[in-house]
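B., you asked whether I could sanity-check this one before it goes into the benchmark set. Here's the sequence:
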Amino acid sequence: MNIFKKTFGFGKKKRVPDGLWSKCPNCSQLIFNKLLDENLKVCPKCSYHFVLTCHQRLKLLVDQGSFIEFDKEMTSDDPLNFSGPKSYKDKLNQAKEKTKLKEAVITGTAEINKRLVALAITDSRFIMGSMGSAMGEKITRMIEQAILKRLPVIITSGSGGGARMYEGMFSLMQMAKTSGALLKLKEAGLPYLSILTHPTMAGVLASFAGLGDITIAEPGALIGFTGPRVIKQTIKQDLPEGFQTSEFNKEHGFIDLIVERKELKEKITTILDYLT
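And here's what the prediction gave me:
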């Protein structure tokens, strides 16, 4: 029998090649990656919206070939010469190598169904998408260009980190700087759409991400200033069900719309047509 199995290969366990399947973090469903890509990285079973990189989201939102990037080479410095088990320079170099980005945001102009906009997209893979001086500067410059060119602004946020502690006050200043730039945009009579994705937290939410004229969120995204676990430990109370999700925030008036990923581009187009 063993010779028969050996000769004809019966009884052998076939190994599934790596990289063909993904596991949904929400429902644990195994999903064929090709199917997941075709469904825009949304679980076909529970509609969990997987986290996207900035370039994946760019491809989803804008017309092909229309993106013109600003300040591509801009990167953060190490103003405090921050040291520890791993220096800030080491963290920056590691993030750059991992993401092939220079900073946690890309900015530029693009067309969305032939409507020209200025936009920024953050990327949580780069030190959790936290706000350093370069990130704040890139977003501010993008807004200033929008004012000069009379363009609506769209910022898609997916940042789990707040102000980047490795830069101290230089990082905290970016919250005020980006907020001030958005005030000038409003005074110029130009609209700003803020799109919140999983996760949008801390200093990012407390500055530019929370200031949209229209605020849109993807379903099920975690959106808040401090994570629910920290809040629960601080106040010593159980939190409401669904606390800090998109749905909870919409119910309490912080978010205007919750939009499925596949409908997002068309919804943005409709809003732009109305506001401009």
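One thing to flag: The first helix runs from residue 2 to 8. Otherwise nothing jumped out at me.
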